[in-house]
Design goal:
With 150 residues, the protein is of the alpha/beta class. It has helices at residues 2-19, 34-37, 53-65, 83-92, 97-100, 110-114, 140-148, and strands spanning 23-26, 31-33, 42-48, 73-79, 103-106, 122-127, 130-135. The chain is globular, with a radius of gyration of 16 Å.
Length: 150
């Protein structure tokens, strides 16, 4: 039993250590590390895909509102799709630069698996790089409440 607990602990430690070394790409093809992605004290990751009707609706809403909350970094993490597919979506749906400039591609679904995302769209709230909350919707009021309570 001690060996099993040790092996599980070792796996969790190694996975957490390698999560810091994950490199993703922005829509412009620039590499961004996981560490840099979640480096702000308050970060929200919006996990989405182009084929998901609710995700498309949410992306349009966020783009129209050009959502920005002081002190909170919002990143738009596309799960499992290619750069060209996401770029076509952004162009055809006229997604504003305030959103498209913050799109990050998780082509291997690494972060979606890391945060146990089982449905999309999904919002992951992180404080100082640590998971604190998960939601299927997003409002400024919710964001402020989540970060105030942690």
């Amino acid at each position: 039993m001690k060996k099993i607990i040790f092996l599980i602990s070792l796996f969790v430690f190694l996975f957490a250590a390698t999560a810091q070394e994950i490199n993703l790409l922005t829509l412009d093809g620039e590499e961004i590390s996981y560490t840099k992605l979640v480096s702000k004290p308050k970060t929200v990751l919006f996990i989405w895909t182009t084929w998901c009707p609710s995700c498309r609706k949410e992306m349009k809403r966020l783009s129209n509102e050009c959502i920005s909350i002081r002190g909170i970094e919002i990143k738009f993490l596309n799960a499992g799709q290619s750069n060209s597919k996401v770029k076509r979506f952004v162009k055809s749906n006229k997604i504003n630069g305030c959103i498209s400039d913050k799109i990050v591609l998780d082509t291997q679904n690494i972060l979606a698996r890391l945060y146990n995302v089982s449905a999309i769209p999904n919002y992951i709230f992180l404080q100082d790089g640590k998971f604190i909350y998960k939601s299927y919707f997003f409002t400024e009021k919710l964001a402020k409440m989540v970060f105030q309570n942690n």
